C-alpha cells in the first residue's frame, strides 16, 4: 500500500458520535439490508454531520471495520466507545427501538425516490445511424451493378439458395445504392471467423486434420481421472494434476497440532444428528464408522498416532466426499445440532439427535476438527464449501461411538412437542427463528436472538432445567447439567446481568428445586445442582466459543464472570452448609437443656461428632449463640460423658445418633425447601 505524501492534505475522516455508533449497531444486527442499501441509509440519516466533516467517503468497508471494534472491545474487557450498545436496561431498550423506527422511516423514504423513466416497449428507441469514416470505408465491399434491361428474364433460384440468400440479406447492416455501384457494409461481429482458401475444381482438397496421439491420450487420461482436482508444482515450471491423497504426499504432510488442541478435554455432552440413510446410523454396536462397518467381529484398530495421523482420511471426511472414512462426526454445540436437525426436517428428512456421554470415549480417539482443518488448508484445496467450514464445534471420533455412551435419542417431533407442552420452554428455544434456512448462525441468527434481550429470569431458569431433563440429564450428572446451562445461555444469546450474591443464590435455588422436583434427592445432590447452575452461568457468559480449551479464553471468561457477580469459588454454598451445621449444634444444645439434670443420653456423642466435622471455633460460636444457662444446664455432664467415652474408646454411638437425627428430620418434613433452608 502506497504511503501518502506528507505534502498532500489528509482525506476527510468520519468523526463518530454515540448516535452514529448506535445506529450502525442496529443497522448491522436488527436488519438484513444489502450493502448498498445499508450505506445509503446511513449516509442519508447523517448527511448533515458528514457535510460538517468535509463529506468523507462512506462505503461498506468503513462501516464493517467500525462495527468490528465493538467485538474487539468486548474481548479486551474495556468498553471505551461501544459500552452503551451492550446495556440491557429499559432506557437502552427504548433508545434502541427509537433508532429502529428511524431506520424504517428512512427505508420507506428511500424506496419512494423517483426512478429514471424507462423506454416503453411499444415505442421502439431510435437506432443510431452508422457513421461512415475513412477507416470503415476501407472495409466496404464494392459490388458491380448488373445492367438493367427489360428483356432480361427473371429466373427463380432453388429453395436452398433462396433461404441462404434471405439469411445473408437479413444480416446486412446498411445498404447504399448509387448510379453505378452497390455498396454493402458488413456487420461487426464478435464471433471468430474461419478463413477458407478458394479451391479450383481441378485442385484436390486436403484431408481433415486429426488430433495427434499425444493429445488424444491426454484427453482420455483427464476424462478418466476425475479425482485429479489439484495442480501440484513438482519442479519450477513443471506440474501435474493429482488427487487429494497424492497431493498431500507430494506437498508433504501438514504440521500436526499439539495434543492439547488435537485432543482437548471434553467434559460436557456431545450430540450427533443422523437418519437411516446416514453413513453411520445408530446400531446395536453404537455409531460405527463407515469403513469399519464390516469389521465388527475384528478388534478395533488403534487410533492414529501423533507421528502419523490419518491426514488423507481427515481431508476426505472434512470435504464431505461420499466415501467411507474411519471417523464419526459429532458436535458439542446444542444450537448447531438442533438447527441442523430442524433444517433437514424442513427439507423432508426426518432426523434424530443422540445425546452422547463424552466421559465414555477414549481421549486419544477424539479429534477436534478445528486444528486439523487449519493444517490441511495449507496443503489441500477443499471443495463444496469445506474451505470455509472451520469445524469449531465438530469432533471426529475414530472407529466408533460405543452404544453405552448414548444416553438418549430424541426426534425433531419430540422437540416440537416439548415446546408446545411447556410454553416457557418454547419461548426460550424460539424454534421458528433458529430453523430459518440459509441463515448464518454467527452472522445472522445469534445477533437476532441477542437483540431480543431475553434475560435470565425465573421462567428461563426453569426452562433450562426442563431442557436438561428432556435430554436425559438429571441431578446425578452435575458436569453435564453445567454444560447444558452454559450452552443455552451462550448459544441462545440470553443476557446475564450483574446480581448480588444473595440474588444468585436465589436463582440457584430455583434451578435446583425445578430439576429435583418429583424425586427424592439428598442434600448433597441438591447443592451440587446449585453449584452446576452457577458454573454453567459463568461459562455461558463468556464471549469466546469453547472457552475451556485455551488458557487465554479461560482467563477472559473468569474475568467476565466476576463482572456479573459470579466468582470462581463455591464459598457461598459452603457457607450455607456451615450455617446448617451451626443450626444443628444449637438445636442439640437446646435438646440437652430440656433433659433432666444428670441425664447425659447421647448428647455428648452428638457433640463430639459435630466437633469432628465442624471444628472448635464454630462450636464456640454455637455456644455464644445459645448462651442461656437459666435452666440450670451443667457443662460438667459433657466432661463426665466424654471421660466415659474415652474409657470405652467407642465413638459410634454419637455418630449413629447424629445420622438418626438427620434421617428423622428428613422423613418428618414434607416440604423439601424447608429442609434445604436449614
UniProtKB/TrEMBL annotation:
Give me the stretches of Acidic residues compositional bias.
614-633, 643-655
Ranges for region Disordered: 104-164, 181-217, 614-656
Matches recorded under InterPro entries: DUF7587
Locate the compositionally biased regions of type Low complexity: 115-130, 148-159
Coiled-coil positions are none
User: Domain DUF7587, which positions?
Assistant: 267-414
Q: What protein name is recorded for this chain?
A: DUF7587 domain-containing protein
Organismal lineage: Eukaryota, Fungi, Dikarya, Ascomycota, Pezizomycotina
Amino acid at each position: 500500500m502506497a504511503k501518502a505524501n506528507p505534502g498532500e492534505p489528509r482525506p476527510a475522516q468520519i468523526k463518530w458520535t454515540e448516535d452514529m455508533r448506535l445506529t450502525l449497531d442496529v443497522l448491522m444486527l436488527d436488519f438484513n439490508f444489502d450493502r448498498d442499501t445499508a450505506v445509503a441509509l446511513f449516509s442519508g440519516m447523517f448527511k448533515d454531520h458528514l457535510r460538517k466533516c468535509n463529506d468523507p467517503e462512506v462505503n461498506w468497508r468503513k462501516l464493517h471495520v467500525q462495527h468490528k471494534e465493538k467485538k474487539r472491545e468486548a474481548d479486551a474487557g474495556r468498553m471505551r466507545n461501544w459500552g452503551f450498545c451492550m446495556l440491557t436496561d429499559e432506557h437502552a431498550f427504548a433508545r434502541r427501538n427509537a433508532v429502529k423506527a428511524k431506520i424504517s422511516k428512512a427505508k420507506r423514504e428511500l424506496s419512494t425516490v423517483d426512478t429514471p423513466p424507462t423506454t416503453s416497449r411499444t415505442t421502439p428507441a431510435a437506432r443510431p445511424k452508422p457513421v461512415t469514416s475513412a477507416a470503415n470505408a476501407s472495409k466496404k465491399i464494392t459490388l458491380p451493378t448488373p445492367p438493367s434491361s427489360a428483356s432480361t428474364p427473371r429466373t427463380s433460384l432453388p429453395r436452398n439458395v433462396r433461404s441462404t440468400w434471405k439469411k445473408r440479406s437479413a444480416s446486412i447492416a446498411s445498404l447504399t445504392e448509387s448510379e453505378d455501384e452497390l455498396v454493402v457494409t458488413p456487420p461487426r461481429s464478435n464471433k471468430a471467423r474461419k478463413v477458407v482458401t478458394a479451391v479450383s475444381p481441378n485442385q484436390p482438397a486436403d484431408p481433415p486434420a486429426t488430433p495427434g496421439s499425444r493429445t488424444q491420450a491426454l484427453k482420455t487420461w483427464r476424462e478418466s481421472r476425475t479425482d485429479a482436482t489439484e495442480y501440484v508444482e513438482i519442479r519450477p515450471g513443471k506440474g501435474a494434476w493429482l488427487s487429494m491423497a497424492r497431493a498431500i504426499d507430494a506437498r508433504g504432510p501438514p504440521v500436526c497440532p499439539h495434543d492439547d488442541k488435537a485432543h482437548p478435554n471434553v467434559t460436557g455432552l456431545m450430540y450427533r444428528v443422523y437418519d437411516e440413510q446416514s453413513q453411520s446410523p445408530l446400531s446395536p454396536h453404537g455409531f460405527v464408522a463407515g469403513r469399519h462397518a464390516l469389521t465388527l467381529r475384528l478388534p478395533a484398530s488403534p487410533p492414529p498416532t501423533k507421528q502419523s495421523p490419518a491426514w488423507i482420511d481427515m481431508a476426505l471426511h472434512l470435504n464431505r466426499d461420499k466415501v467411507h472414512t474411519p471417523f464419526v462426526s459429532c458436535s458439542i454445540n446444542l444450537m448447531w445440532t438442533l438447527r441442523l436437525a430442524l433444517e433437514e426436517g424442513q427439507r423432508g428428512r426426518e432426523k434424530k439427535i443422540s445425546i452422547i456421554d463424552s466421559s465414555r470415549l477414549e481421549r486419544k480417539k477424539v479429534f477436534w476438527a478445528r486444528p486439523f482443518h487449519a493444517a490441511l488448508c495449507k496443503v489441500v484445496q477443499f471443495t463444496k464449501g469445506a474451505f470455509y467450514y472451520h469445524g469449531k464445534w465438530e469432533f471426529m471420533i475414530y472407529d466408533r461411538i460405543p452404544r453405552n455412551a448414548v444416553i438418549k435419542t430424541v426426534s425433531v417431533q419430540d422437540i416440537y412437542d416439548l415446546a408446545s407442552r411447556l410454553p416457557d420452554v418454547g419461548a426460550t428455544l424460539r424454534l421458528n427463528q433458529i430453523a430459518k434456512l440459509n441463515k448464518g448462525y454467527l452472522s445472522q441468527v445469534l445477533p437476532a436472538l441477542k437483540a431480543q434481550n431475553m434475560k435470565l429470569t425465573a421462567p428461563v431458569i426453569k426452562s433450562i432445567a426442563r431442557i436438561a431433563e428432556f435430554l436425559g440429564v438429571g441431578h446425578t450428572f452435575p458436569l453435564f447439567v453445567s454444560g447444558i446451562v452454559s450452552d443455552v445461555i451462550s448459544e441462545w444469546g440470553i443476557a446475564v446481568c450483574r446480581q448480588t450474591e444473595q440474588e444468585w443464590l436465589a436463582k440457584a435455588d430455583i434451578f435446583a428445586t425445578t430439576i429435583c422436583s418429583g424425586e427424592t434427592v439428598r442434600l448433597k445432590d441438591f447443592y451440587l445442582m446449585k453449584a452446576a447452575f452457577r458454573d454453567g452461568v459463568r461459562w455461558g457468559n463468556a464471549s469466546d466459543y469453547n472457552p475451556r480449551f485455551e488458557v487465554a479464553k479461560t482467563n477472559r471468561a473468569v474475568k467476565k464472570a466476576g463482572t456479573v457477580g459470579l466468582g470462581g469459588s463455591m464459598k457461598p454454598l459452603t457457607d450455607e452448609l456451615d450455617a446448617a451445621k451451626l443450626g444443628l449444634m444449637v438445636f442439640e444444645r437446646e435438646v440437652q437443656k430440656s433433659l433432666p439434670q444428670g441425664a447425659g443420653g447421647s448428647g455428648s456423642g452428638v457433640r463430639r461428632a459435630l466437633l469432628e466435622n465442624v471444628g472448635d471455633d464454630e462450636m464456640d460460636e454455637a455456644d455464644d449463640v445459645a448462651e442461656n444457662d437459666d435452666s440450670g444446664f451443667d457443662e460438667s455432664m459433657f466432661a463426665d460423658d466424654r471421660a466415659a467415652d474415652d474409657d470405652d474408646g467407642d465413638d459410634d454411638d454419637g455418630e449413629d445418633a447424629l445420622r438418626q437425627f438427620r434421617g428423622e428430620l428428613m422423613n418428618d418434613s414434607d416440604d423439601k425447601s424447608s429442609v434445604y433452608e436449614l
